[in-house]
Design brief:
Helices cover 66% and strands 0% of the residues. The chain is mainly alpha-helical. The protein has a domain of 63 residues. It is elongated, with a radius of gyration of 28 Å. It starts with a helix and ends in a 6-residue tail after the last helix.
Length: 178
C-alpha cells in the first residue's frame, strides 16, 4: 500500500514538474518577446535621434554656406553648443540653456557633468591609425601612443582630435598628395 502511495505521489510530482516547466517556457517566451520589443523600440528611437542630429548639423552648415561663413570643426561645435531647444541640446549631450557666449556654451558646473557619449568603433580605428602613423603629431595633441588613451576619450573630444589631426596631416602633405 505504501508503494502505491509513493507511486501516486511520484506521479503527482512529475505532473507538477511538467506544469511548472510549461509555465516557465511560456514566461520565458513572453519575456523574450518583451525584450525584443524594447530593443526594437530603442533602435528606432536612436535612429530618430541620429536623423535629428543630422538635420540640425545640415541646417547649421547650410546656413553657413548661404552666408559664406568659413566652416571648421571648432565653429560647428560652437554652433551646436549654442542650440536653444532642450531636446536638441540633449541629442548632443548638452544640458540646460546655452550660455550667452558661444565659446562658453555647453560648459557645465563640476557637479552637473554628464558622462560623454562613448567613442564609436569607427572613430577608434581612425584615431588608432592616425596615432600610429603620426606619433609625433599625436604627442603634440597630448596623446601618448603607448597608453590606453582611447578608452578615456569622449565622443566630442575624439571628433575634435580626428579633425585637428587630419587638418594638420593634410597641411603637412606635399601639394601633389593632398
Amino acid at each position: 500500500m505504501q508503494t502505491s502511495r509513493r507511486a501516486a505521489r511520484i506521479t503527482r510530482l512529475q505532473e507538477r514538474r511538467q506544469e511548472i516547466a510549461s509555465r516557465a517556457r511560456v514566461a520565458d517566451k513572453r519575456l523574450a518577446d518583451q525584450l525584443r520589443q524594447l530593443q526594437t523600440h530603442e533602435t528606432k528611437a536612436e535612429r530618430k535621434r541620429e536623423t535629428r542630429r543630422k538635420i540640425i548639423v545640415g541646417a547649421i552648415v547650410r546656413a553657413a554656406q548661404m552666408s559664406q561663413t568659413d566652416i571648421s570643426l571648432r565653429w560647428l561645435e560652437e554652433q551646436i553648443k549654442a542650440l536653444k531647444r532642450p531636446d536638441d541640446r540633449a541629442l548632443f549631450g548638452l544640458d540646460g540653456e546655452p550660455s550667452a557666449d558661444p565659446a562658453e556654451a555647453g560648459k557645465r558646473e563640476p557637479g552637473a557633468a554628464r558622462p560623454a557619449p562613448p567613442i564609436t568603433s569607427r572613430q577608434k580605428k581612425l584615431l588608432a591609425k592616425l596615432v600610429e602613423e603620426h606619433r609625433e603629431l599625436a604627442r603634440e595633441f597630448g596623446v601618448d601612443p603607448g597608453e590606453p588613451w582611447l578608452e578615456k576619450l569622449g565622443k566630442a573630444k575624439a571628433t575634435s582630435l580626428i579633425g585637428a589631426m587630419l587638418e594638420r596631416v593634410n597641411a603637412q602633405a606635399p601639394p601633389d598628395e593632398r
